[in-house]
Amino acid sequence: MSDFQKDLDDVMKKYDRESNTRIWEGAPKIFIRWISALFSLYCIYVTLFSTMMPEIKLNIFLGLILIIGYLNYPISRHHVKTNSMPVYDILIMLAGVIPFFYFAWNAESIIKLALRVTSPRNPDYKLMVTMAILAIISTMELCRRCVGIPILCVVGALMVYAFCNVRFGKVIYDLYYSTGDGIRSTPIDVCAKYIVVFIIFGAFLERTGISAFFINMANAIAGSSSGGPAKVAVISSALCGMVSGSSVGNTVTTGSITIPMMKKTGYKAEFAGAVEAAASTGGQIMPPIMGAAAFLMSEYMGVPYSQVALKAILPAVLYFAGIYIAVHLEAKKLGLKGISKDELPKIIELLPKIYLLLPLVVLVVMVSMNIYTMQFSAAVAIGFAILVGLINSDERITFTKIIDALEAGGKGTITVAVACAMAGLVAGCITSTGLASQLISMVVNISGGHAFIALILTMICCIILGMGVPTTANYCIMAATCAPILMAPAIGIEKVCAHFFVFYFGIVADITPPVALAAYAGSAIAKAPPMKTAFNATRLAIAAFIVPYIFAFEPAMLFENIGHISGADPFLNELLAFIEVALICVTALLGIFGVAAALNGYLFRPMNFVIRVMLAAGGLLMLVPGFMSDLAGFTLLAVGVIVQYLKLKRDNN
Q: Which string of b and e fits 494-504 if b means at least 16 CB within 10 Å?
């Protein structure tokens, strides 16, 4: 292993707990490899063909997750010995596995008994409560190992609050025995039904060589322009992020290529790390997969998955456009050049590899048709990924790679499933205590019913709760705690807009200090100060802090409530819808440009304080919905741009 690869592995282990795994060699390695692969096949079979009742299916799923999880994750990264699994790890694993499998085996009788679990007079009370506690604690311990402590702090605080305010038996019932709430609620159900198949699909897709294709395509498109490597990072991270599902993982994977290129071009180390972190984090909001959260959003909002992916397009484009603009202005300010065209791949040379996109195209088309289930569409896409891999002579897929993909899919499911289980505990505590209504009342009282103030307060809550939490669990927590606040009648934010709002601000926690894991991973690769990198990433991702406010007040950006006049001709309604969305996109882009330029302090030439304030004010006004604000904002932007251009002409003369 090269020193550089070792450094990357160290970065992953430091900032991505998924990388802190046991070391297995020889026969044990082969054994665990096949267990993970068979688990993936089992999940595909169950999602496609199983008719088991949820209590059986989900308990088996969680039991298997605990087995694979404890086989892979040690108690600490400092307690790793080759081919070693301490007795205490086996006992902790069995403490959770036995209750889950016992519940699955005796589901019908336990469901009847569980209805009386709230009464200590029930003769089975002690046994049922003990099994529930062991299963929950074992799952929480696995979460600590592979996900991290931040989410456990949230879960632990809510559980203590629940035990202090609700009868113990009722809390246990809600958290463990209730199918609608608690550990087997919507998050884990969606994970077992949809997400696991898409994780496996992502593992197969990575082995077709599509990531290298994305990076080469980004180089061909933007590599030769000013500051080309940074623009390559933005484009490639947006594309690879669709496959990855991890901000940190995406930062390290694509950043290992793009960050050294950016530094070599002339970008400061903290800026190079920030670009990659901001772009990689944006991969989680990039349709069609959106870090697997799109499936949960579909379930929570009651909207078809294809519509969720469609609604996410414009905000994602604006997010990456904001980063791209900031990167371009920074390159111009530093006078940076691009990479020589002779060193870059040609688009014409990459076109023969366009077939690598076929699995993604098949997936999107099948899901959009609403004829097939999401899991069936993903299974078909896996088949196409294998077919594409057989055709690709550069990285031809083999039987070994197929097993690798199944193994990676099985292991990749562990963290998502455990995080979803924790999100279910959060939802269960909130439901049993009625905490959601109290949070709503508190925010409404503090904000005085003003939507903008409520949005700011909710944004702060989302960023705090989202620190160090994986994408899927992040959204589940936001959907349970923060989205209902915005949907309260006193605030009046529409359901879809509220869910997208909390999703966005939960995600940007990965680049927002003080717990900015993606930014810290980028800084480690760039060998830059972590906090400087985090603040640079926050500045670059300014669009992520602005766009949610736009669609909160202008749902048309999410294709909600657009261009409809009762009784009007359908063509006229479609035309009005197109014009409305186009105007919002144009004004939003101009607004983001103004804010990005003001933060950068450069447009054609360095800007003085007055021009920066003018561009910032103009940009913000254009982001505020309304004709008059757009007009005022455009005027300020136009004046600022013209003044800067005239100053440039004067300097040249």
A: bbbbbbbbbbb
